[in-house]
Design goal:
The protein is built from 19 helices and 2 strands. The protein has 467 residues and is an all-alpha fold. The protein folds into 3 domains: 187 residues, Growth Hormone, Chain: A (Up-down Bundle), CATH 1.20.1250; 56 residues; 218 residues, Growth Hormone, Chain: A (Up-down Bundle), CATH 1.20.1250. Strands 1-2 form a two-stranded antiparallel ribbon. A hairpin with a 2-residue loop joins strand 1 and strand 2. Helix 1 packs antiparallel against helix 7. The longest helix is centred in the N-terminal third of the chain and has 32 residues. The two termini are 26 Å apart. The relative contact order is 0.13. The C terminus is likely disordered. Keywords: Membrane, Transmembrane, Transmembrane helix. One of its GO terms (cellular component) is plasma membrane. It holds the Pfam family MFS_1. GO terms for molecular function: transmembrane transporter activity.
Length: 467
């Protein structure tokens, strides 16, 4: 069996490759209508398709990993990444790029599956630090990937971005095949196809409503139909999951206080993280003459944002030690406190570029601690045979938070504008309101984190014993 350090390193690289896909097209997002000869409403699907694929595939991939082998599903997801990247790289029109980006979105399931693999193959004392490292890749991949994407876009054809993604996916595929051992723990039963279909339809409806509400109109029939229809389907799906012998997700396990409160806090922390991801780059890049921006280039702005991801990586060893000594609940509480501090700082100081840098570093502390704590809390509260599905559900909760933040903060910034050279741009008050919302949601995450039981319920199954 390969050295455990090599397994952790490969899974960390896989995690960074996964998170890199979500910042891959940020530098060309505004130019997509021109590059693809399509309307802005159509090119929005280049982003939306990735979001939908990620949300749908992640919990399903977790369950498939529990049943058929986690490494096997990781390899399938990486193969989809490579295929999608090649399709997009060879495309000159919007359809091929959307198809490629949809397939790229599937790779988001690699991170929760990688965390679950750690529990299966590492010595108990190494699990927490390794989980903290893999969790940090959620921020590191995006933070490092953004300036790389910006530089590639500035000096090369945009198709090179997708060839870069294809090459990265291929390298990671080989490393996983070579280093990561085959999963031996399998969950018995049949895969719940109807449950997977129901979850997919429900999530797509809700996320379409959230992500496209600004463009289609929040009270439009399409948005109301998607949102209410998705909620109805999810309600029926939950009722069905409680009545089948082999459900896609064990909702009774998900309802345990430690799991439930962790997932609710995950939604809130995802919202708080993405509030900064939407607001900070816009502030940094808006012209100084608008009185709301700093006039930086995309590359310079991405370098100001990048340290948050590096902070997450540096914190990972400390997170592991704190978790083993004091428990993961403390990490989640500390993470929420750091997020509250970050937004409190921006409400007081936001007149210099270094203010944004400091706030973003505090965001890095918050997400570094918080995202490391979440899978640790989950895996202390679920049977080992359900770690893939449970981590997938937790990743879905984070995604719901980030997608909701993207829609809400975009609506806040779009609803408070003034004209500048004939173009509406957000006002300083709009950014102030965004920071207020981010701070309030971070405070909510802190309150929920404090509600998580510090001790395991004695009636729960011991998490180290498979069912």
């Amino acid at each position: 069996m390969p050295r455990q350090g090599a397994i952790v390193a490969v899974l960390a690289i896989a995690g960074m490759a996964s998170s890199f896909m979500f910042t891959l097209v940020v530098p060309i997002q505004a130019k997509l209508p021109e590059l693809l000869d399509a309307s802005r409403d159509d090119t929005a699907w280049v982003i939306t398709s990735t979001l939908l694929a990620s949300a749908v595939i992640t919990p399903i991939a977790g369950r498939l990993g529990d049943m058929y082998g986690k490494r096997r599903i990781v390899l399938v997801l990486l193969a989809l990444l490579v295929l999608g990247s090649v399709i997009a790289a060879l495309s000159t029109g919007i359809i091929g790029v959307i198809v490629g980006r949809t397939l790229q979105g599937a790779v988001s399931g690699v991170i929760p599956l990688g965390i679950s693999i750690l529990r299966d193959v590492l010595h108990e004392k190494r699990v927490d630090p390794a989980i903290a490292l893999i969790s940090a890749t959620l921020g590191v991949g995006g933070a490092i990937g953004l300036p790389i994407s910006a530089i590639v876009t500035q000096y090369a054809d945009w198709h090179v971005l997708f060839w870069l993604a294809a090459g990265l996916g291929a390298v990671v595929f080989v490393l996983v095949l070579w280093i990561v051992p085959v999963s031996v723990l399998r969950t018995a039963g049949r895969f719940d196809l109807l449950g997977a279909a129901g979850l997919s339809v429900g999530l797509i409806g809700v996320l379409l409503a959230v992500s496209r509400g600004n463009e289609w109109g929040w009270t439009s029939p399409a948005i109301l139909g998607c949102g209410l229809g998705g909620l109805l389907v999810l309600g029926l799906w939950g009722w069905y999951q409680l009545r089948v012998p082999d459900p896609l997700l064990d909702l009774r396990t998900a309802a345990r206080p430690a799991v439930l409160f962790t997932n609710i806090s995950s939604v809130a922390m995802g919202f708080a993280l993405f509030t900064s991801s939407v607001a900070f780059p816009q502030m940094l890049e808006l012209p100084v003459e608008t009185d709301a921006g700093f006039g930086l280039s995309l590359v310079a702005a991405s370098l100001i944002v990048m340290p948050s991801g590096l902070v997450m990586m540096v914190l990972s060893p400390l997170s592991g030690r704190l978790s083993r000594t004091f428990g993961p609940k403390l990490l989640l509480v500390l993470g929420a406190i750091a997020l509250v501090a970050a937004y409190s700082f921006t409400l007081l100081f936001v007149s210099e570029v270094w203010h944004i840098l400091v706030a973003n570093i505090l965001i890095g502390f918050g997400i570094g601690f918080g995202y490391a704590a979440m899978p640790m809390l989950i895996m202390r509260s679920v049977p080992q045979s359900e770690t893939g599905a449970s981590n997938g559900l937790n990743a879905l909760c984070r995604a719901l938070g980030t997608s909701t933040a993207a829609a809400v903060i975009a609506a806040v910034l779009a609803g408070n504008t003034r004209p500048f050279e004939g173009v509406p741009i957000p006002t300083a008050d709009a950014f102030h309101l965004a920071f207020v919302l981010g701070g309030l949601v971070a405070l909510f995450a802190l309150v929920v984190a404090l509600l998580i039981p510090s001790r395991r319920d004695p009636h729960e199954a011991h998490p180290s014993l498979p069912h």
